[in-house]
TrEMBL record:
Organism: Ascaris lumbricoides
Origin: domain of life: Eukaryota
Name under which the protein is recorded: ELMO domain-containing protein
Gene Ontology molecular function: GTPase activator activity
Start and end residues of each ELMO domain: 101-148
PANTHER family: ENGULFMENT AND CELL MOTILITY, LD01482P
Length: 197
């Protein structure tokens, strides 16, 4: 009888342990789901706040609100947390403004009558071919730098793939920067080469 009683008691203990493990797992899973749900609410709130920022002077107020609303998620709250949040929000806004500016430039189409477009073309020529002066706006000289025809009103779609102005600006910038770096490095290398011999 005692063997049977021990067997039944061990089965009951095993069942209890199994129930305790299952309950612990269920609570863990519930806690994890609850935390992830709450975190997604927080990130959604931050996203909504960053979308609704319309003026720079309200960054501090909005960052304080985000920190106040979500303080129970952090065990330790530093005094500079709202300042950091303000910096982050201003950077997010800055990047969004930059993306909007780049997109607006990308959608701008080349126009022959626009003076700034023509100036950018001439600047591109001056950077790529500084030793040769351009004789006219519509010449075969443009073929030396890769254009197929004389007139840009015909080729701007084919050559720059609707990104003419943006790419011309970027190309001009990088060419000027890299030419300066190249000249500096070449003079540095020549100086070292001749100074050690």
């Amino acid at each position: 009888m005692s063997e049977r009683m021990e067997k039944v008691m061990s089965q009951i203990r095993g069942y209890r342990e199994l129930c305790a493990l299952v309950e612990a797992r269920r609570l863990e899973k519930y806690d994890v789901e609850n935390v992830t749900h709450e975190k997604s609410k927080v990130t959604a709130g931050i996203q909504a706040l960053s979308n609704n920022f319309y003026s720079r002077w309200k960054f501090a107020e909005k960052a304080d609100r985000v920190v106040r609303d979500n303080t129970y998620y952090c065990e330790k709250i530093s005094a500079s947390m709202s300042e950091r949040m303000e910096k982050v929000m201003s950077q997010i806004r800055g990047y969004r403004e930059l993306c909007a500016l780049v997109e607006a430039r990308r959608l701008e189409k080349y126009d022959v009558e626009n003076v700034t477009h023509e100036k950018r073309l001439l600047r591109l020529w001056d950077i790529l071919m500084p030793e040769e002066k351009l004789t006219g706006r519509v010449t075969k000289q443009w073929q030396k730098i890769g254009f197929q025809v004389k007139c840009f009103s015909i080729i701007w779609m084919r050559f720059f793939f609707f990104l003419f102005l943006l790419e011309a600006m970027i190309l001009c910038y990088f060419l000027t920067v890299f030419l300066k770096i190249f000249y500096f490095l070449s003079s540095f290398i020549l100086f070292k080469k001749f100074s050690f011999q």
